[in-house]
Amino acid sequence: MNQANSTRGIWRVIGASSAGTLIEWYDFYIFGSLATVIANQFFPKTNPTAALLSTLATFAAGFIVRPFGALVFGRLGDLMGRKNTFLLTLVLMGGSTFAIGLVPGYERIGFAAPLLVLLLRLIQGLALGGEYGGAATYVAEHAPPGKRGYYTSWIQTTATLGLFLSLGVILVTRHVLDSDPAASVRKFNDWGWRIPFLVSIVLVVVSIYIRLKMEESPLFKKLKAAGHTSKNPLKESFGHRANLKMVLLALFGAAMGQGVVWYTGQFYAQSFMENVCHISFDQSRTILIWAILFATPFFIVFGSLSDRLGRKPIMLAGMLLAVFCYRPIYRQMLHTAEVPAITVTSSTVADGGNRAIQLQNGFRYVEKTEAGNTVALDKQLDTGRYLFMVVLVFVQVLLVTMVYGPIAAFLVELFPTRIRYTSMSLPYHIGNGVFGGLTPFIATLLTTTYSSDKLVGLWYPIVVAAFCLIIGLLYLSNRVNPHVTD
Amino acid sequence: MQQLKRWFGMVWIIAGIALAIVLFRIALHEMTTKPQIDTQIQWLVFLVVFLPIIAGLVIFGYYALKGEYDQI
């Protein structure tokens, strides 16, 4: 009976934690996925100050505010408790996302519009920085020894499922606003983009209700009852050599490589399909959606496997495969998106004097001539190529599941209960927010600088993953700490 | 293995210093050749964020060199 209650209890803990974390990721991603639409509404390129605020919204939220949120909320979590802290981050994230959906456009209220959006985006980044560490710690501190990798891997699925949900809601909303597809897209760009933001509040309210019913982490309660909670978690985490050395090891030996593998598989892949392979908006997103859907169960597989084999071999194998497979995979993606040399079945004049061409096998594209060069844009792959592209992206997301599935358990086991929230949040958000978040930017910068090689952007994740792999191999231990009770 | 861990400590220290110099030079070059405000902000953010991380790498190397990771 006790065993059954305990099993039910852990699933309630996982359900409540995962639902809230998934919503937070959804909220964070819809802003990124709708960046172009939002820029037109709030940050007109013609106005330099608005463009400046746009740059700040992109860079500050991802790179500065997330690690800062990790410090602020990590400290709170170690002082006040996990439950109240990640409840607060959920309220902040949900409230700011809903508010973005309500802010009037630049044309109506001028500079107040981009300023408000920037402020709300910063709150989003801050809240995300605090959420993940709390959820992972909370689940791990409820999990029985020997199953921590398995149970925390459910939390690990939320980042990917949040992306999946955001892509799905955006695609559906984009196509249901009018029976005419072109009119529907126009309406979406005009006002329909607000719907995904507003929908968030319903999800957040449900999640807050569930989380309010949860108990505080048993380990934290015990620590608090004994009066052993940390008085100054920041000082203990980063001011003492014994703990700082573990924070640095977590960052350079695991989180840094995990971050670039994650962002390459789930964000650079989509950007590459759309901007380099010139696959259509809808197809580049549905390819990613299918790949995510098939790969997501592997978070649980690798999380569970890490309980038996250890966290180190699985995470490092993911990095090793990424180092050696990225260039062949992306070469295949380029090859798959090439226009096949087969019979043209129809060729009509499309918008702007371009030609809309359909091939015998169903492959469609728009042919555009620029400065004497002909380019194929807005490609709709035929079924065979589409499926192969799904496989290529699936392999990348599979690598993400290898490096990301066990990392929550790995980070939790590295630090003592009294400063766990603070200590694990910072390396996680530097690894993902800074190293991972910069992947699309640096890869694009490399591609623009060395334009003759379309795969040159991959050197950034490859070098960072290789660097992390060497540090991990040399310094990480494969011992699984059976107790996270210090 | 312990000795290898310590020798590599020196590698991380040198890599950290080299990275800091390279990053600083690239940022300076980009900020002077492209004086648009958003380019300047981007590189300023990179410097503010990456220099402490690079300092962390140097400290990591120092700890490794001193044998702090021998027993892990």
User: Which blocks of ≥5 consecutive residues of chain A have pLDDT under 50?
Assistant: none
Number of strand segments of chain A:
4
* Overall spatial form of chain B: elongated
Helix content of chain B: over 70%
Query: Strands of the biggest beta sheet of chain A: in what spatial order?
Result: 1-2-3-4
Tell me, what's the shape of chain A?
globular
Number of helices of chain A: 20
Distance between the termini of chain B: 12 Å
The SSE string of chain A, one letter per element, is: HHHHHHHHHHHHHHHEEEEHHHHH
Structural class of chain A: mainly alpha
Percent of residues in β-strands of chain A: 5-15%
Structural class of chain B: mainly alpha
- Helices and strands of chain B, in order, run as HH
Strand content of chain B: under 5%
Q: How would a textbook summarize the main sheet of chain A?
A: 4 strands, antiparallel
Global mean pLDDT of chain A:
90
Largest sheet of chain B: none
Written description of the protein model:
The complex is a heterodimer of chains A (486) and B (72). With 486 residues, chain A is mainly α. Chain A is 75% helix and 5% strand. In chain A, strand 1 and strand 2 form a beta hairpin. In chain A, helix 7 packs antiparallel against helix 13. Chain B has 72 residues and is mainly α. Chain B is built from two helices and no strands. Chain B starts with a helix and ends in a 7-residue tail after the last helix. The mean pLDDT of chain B is 91.
Summarize the helices and strands and which ones pair or pack.
The complex is a heterodimer of chains A (486) and B (72).
Chain A: H1 2-33, H2 35-42, H3 48-80, H4 82-100, H5 106-109, H6 112-142, H7 148-176, H8 181-192, H9 194-212, H10 218-225, H11 233-238, H12 241-276, H13 281-295, H14 297-309, H15 311-336, E1 344-349, E2 355-359, E3 364-370, E4 373-380, H16 383-404, H17 407-414, H18 420-436, H19 439-449, H20 459-475
Helix pairs in contact in A: 1-4, 1-6, 1-7, 1-9, 3-4, 3-6, 3-18, 4-6, 4-9, 6-7, 6-18, 7-8, 7-13, 7-14, 7-17, 12-13, 12-15, 12-16, 12-18, 12-20, 13-16, 14-15, 14-16, 15-16, 15-20
Chain B: H1 2-33, H2 37-65
Helix pairs in contact in B: 1-2
